[in-house]
Amino acid sequence: MPPSSPKATMHDVSRLAGVSKMTVSRVLADPDLVSESTRNRVMKAIEQLSYVPDRVAGSLSSRRTNFITAILPTLTNSNFADTAQGLAEAMRPADYQLLIGYTMYRLEEEERIIRAMLARRPDAIVVAGTTHTKAANEMMLRAGIPIVEIWDTPEHPIDHAVGFSNYEVGRAAALHLLALGHRRIGALGSRMDSDAKDLRGESRLAGFTSVLREAGLSDELVIRAGQAPVSYDHGALTLGILLEQAPEVEAVFAVSDISAVGALMECHRRGIKVPGDLSLMGFGDFDIARQCVPAITTIRIDAEQIGRRTGELLLQVLDRSSARECAPAAAVNVGFELVTRGTTAPAAKPR
Amino acid sequence: MPPSSPKATMHDVSRLAGVSKMTVSRVLADPDLVSESTRNRVMKAIEQLSYVPDRVAGSLSSRRTNFITAILPTLTNSNFADTAQGLAEAMRPADYQLLIGYTMYRLEEEERIIRAMLARRPDAIVVAGTTHTKAANEMMLRAGIPIVEIWDTPEHPIDHAVGFSNYEVGRAAALHLLALGHRRIGALGSRMDSDAKDLRGESRLAGFTSVLREAGLSDELVIRAGQAPVSYDHGALTLGILLEQAPEVEAVFAVSDISAVGALMECHRRGIKVPGDLSLMGFGDFDIARQCVPAITTIRIDAEQIGRRTGELLLQVLDRSSARECAPAAAVNVGFELVTRGTTAPAAKPR
DNA sequence: CTGAAAGCGCTTACAG
DNA sequence: CTGAAAGCGCTTACAG
């Protein structure tokens, strides 16, 4: 450990500058309230002592930590990292610090994290998803701070929400494949019988399935295998399962571009032509989906924007002046967009 | 905002349980010190009031926050997210919370973040890289807490270090391509004349170049273009520049698998055979490199392990009992491994 | 095994 | 424009 020099306190600064602690505090918080000469003297003392204000003490005193808790499933191989970055970016000018927790798609872990985070007294909680354990729901309701559920459109929001309808994403995907004339249509998702559940992926599958049913098609080619979070391997694996079950499948929707890329690579390895033999589409508009050869048809959502919009919403809600009154709960739908690229094509023989 | 119920304090709990605050504190911190009957009464009161201890107050009082600051270039399209996850995982049992900052590969931003983070009084700082601004170096030296520089092997470490030699990685890459019989060898890196600098990528290029020189080869095919952080687009772009400059190039090393994948896709689009026309290798052993067709030869580093090892080291150093004495600074080299896969092959006509 | 006192380093709310 | 007092909710260090 490097040599520890005793940390200067506000008291030390005030003595050196010949003022009270309050004046030092004011110079830091609201410099205009202090006369120029005093301010300069205090600044000099701060500089001289390399004084760094202790925000732990400040937080206790002011009952505001400027911490925002962000609870996300994972940061690897997902666009939640973009959401986190967007949120951090939006909150930075106001000097908020993110407290990130990973649930690994486990609701019990989410509950544990919420409990632990509340002890840090965050000024707000951002949480991915709209389904939580009973205890988690209650803790958030009682917390007395703004809550933002993101990445979906909750039916019964706890408070605010910023996201899009995963169900509608699934429907849009199925409608696209149907419109191309495909009839033997499958999908690739992850297991729902494990502790780790991708609930939003499941919503997309549900929307997808609903369209298949309405079109009088079977949903038996909707594969749920492999554990969340999905991966390139997941796509390769589940495509293999699908092909074994139905070699004649014409079109496939993967719940994530990551899976779609894995499936595409598996097709390359097996000599299956995409498109032609198989139409393939994903979700998320990951960079890799755009760069793949062929580029993958996907449903674009702006993960960073979800973070940014959430940050802007919170900035507004947490603003001291407006915080007096309970701000009305906002529900922002950022929507999504079908991006047609090279992996989907009309069916060879439309019936 | 959900209805705010006034938060119970330790004082409330103590009154309800008919004990002193100290006893409540003990039940939470070291239950064995309290008699069973008292403990049960306190637990019941905690439950009844939904009491959540205030760690802001606890931190101020104990002079320990259980925060670890992790300063990383970016979390997107990189394996720093794995390092963060590994670190978080390792520290979780001891109830540490990560405070993550993104520098976007800018040293001035790193300095700003360090300054801001120090006000949060973290118990340790983990920072990617070994080059910092003068002010940043001084702040870390004076902070009086353990510092761990990760992802490289510093010549003059501030304190602890956990990483591998990027320079040696570059050398290993060049030696591999030379051993295959290639002579017209290039590399793909990012610009060094911008604010955002990938210094570790540059170290890899430096090692790579040193081998080329030793072999009597030119380093004019070492391309530095595009801004850090690298991306799939970066790989496609820089490969295009390289091909324009030297259509006869035989082998290429990209400073990141992400770039290598982008370059590979660009080759697919241009009808360049990999390997055959061009040997290609990357760095990092990203999932996508393994799944690509063909799979990309790379230099494997275990990003998650860097995080885990760092966490274990910190747990040891931060241990109360040993913290008395200054723990000797540790320098852990986690090494790396060349993984030969499908994108590199012997030169067609070895000279 | 339990508790009373002091204090961590700030900010709030007044007062002048 | 500046300051004295009180207090935020815990833990430390004693004492018994």
Care to describe what's here?
- In chain A, about 45% of the residues lie in helices and about 15% in strands.
- By secondary structure, chain A is an alpha/beta fold.
- Chain A has three domains: about 10-55, lambda repressor-like DNA-binding domains (434 Repressor (Amino-terminal Domain), Orthogonal Bundle), CATH 1.10.260.40; about 65-165 and about 305-320, 3-Layer(aba) Sandwich (Rossmann fold); about 165-300, Response regulator (Rossmann fold), CATH 3.40.50.2300.
- Chain A has a six-stranded parallel beta sheet, with helices on both faces. In chain A, strands 7-6-8-9 form a four-stranded parallel beta sheet, sandwiched between helices.
- The longest helix of chain A has 16 residues, at about 200-215.
- The radius of gyration of chain A is 26 Å and the shape is elongated.
- The interface between A and B is large, with 66 and 66 residues.
- Chain A binds a DNA duplex (16 and 16 nucleotides) through helix 2 and helix 4.
